[in-house]
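Example record for the data management plan.
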Amino acid sequence: MRRTRPILVVIALAIVSLGGAPGVSARSYVDPTTLTPPLKAFRVCWQLGPEVQCDTSGVTSIENLPTDDSACGQIYETSTEVSNSTRWYRDGLIVRRAIQESVRGTWSLSPTGDGPTVAFMRDLSWDEHFAIPGDITSGVFNTRGRWAADRDPRGGRDPGHASRLGSELAAHRSALRERQRDG
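Corresponding structural encoding:
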């Protein structure tokens, strides 16, 4: 019985000392506009040890937006994009970001979306590390994802044209994405 008392005292002291350690499980809010590059003021960022972590997400929809020109004519896109992003900052400078996006939509040659359309989907994610903290042009990244285009989802009047349009658009949009990413 006498041996258990010193052990209980040691355990009690250990618990008390851990409970008083500052910042063990605490996180503090960081103003996102103070970071480089700054985020919009409504974003939520937390100081987590030596890094600040900002989690962002959003849903964006467009309807019959002129997006590209092709041999077929002006391309109009109607789509919804859901994206999630986490950014990490050290000493106030961005050092990494990870992004996932999912887009579902249609392409058309009509500014109203009438006529043949091509359904498409895009699921992409990338993880980008910045060679120079704070300089978003110094990013080195790994991209993963899939892309698909299909014929007119409504059983349009000219599915052959929609299929040709889909193939051309998929190749065109893929090349455009590569150029945007590279430069």
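Summary line stored alongside the record: Strands lie at 28-30, 44-48, 51-70, 73-90, 93-108, 117-130, 139-150.
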